[in-house]
Amino acid sequence: PICCAQENVLQRVLQLPVVSSTCESLQRTYVSTKEAHPLMASVCEVYERGVQGASALAMWSVEPVVRRLEPQFAVANNLACRGLDHLEEKIPALQYPVDK
């Protein structure tokens, strides 16, 4: 695929079949582990709440920096998209789920 300015390289990577199938597999394992082990589920829930709070605080604190560096991020994103285009051409396995 040809990269356009509005594309986000992270979204593109997450949409690659090899990446998305790996994430789905990890999520299924995480959920089934929590269901099978109640103690693990309560520890995970505390951890998840902590991560959500820390993420919200981090987003709030870095927002001014992100706004100031937006032009540089756009250039880096464009370069990364072009690199991903090249990888997708050279490594066809990226277009297949992990089990294939």
Keywords:
79% helix; single chain; 4 helices; PLIN1; mainly alpha; 100 residues; PLIN1 protein
Explain what the structure shows:
One of its GO terms (cellular component) is lipid droplet. One of its GO terms (biological process) is lipid metabolic process. Its main location: other. The protein has 100 residues and is mainly α. The protein is 79% helix and 0% strand. It is flat.
Helix and strand arrangement:
Elements: H1 9-15, H2 17-36, H3 38-68, H4 70-90
Helix pairs in contact: 2-3
Distinct helical segment count: 4
Residue runs with pLDDT of under 50 for 5 or more positions: none
Give helix % range: over 70%
Question: How much strand?
Answer: under 5%
Order of helices and strands: HHHH
Mean pLDDT: 90
Report Rg.
18 Å
Largest sheet: none
Give the total of beta strands. 0
| Distance separating the two termini | 22 Å
- The helix/strand class is mainly alpha
Instruction: Categorize the overall geometry.
Output: flat
Write a short abstract of this structure.
InterPro entries: Perilipin, PLIN1. The chain has helices at residues 9-15, 17-36, 38-68, 70-90.
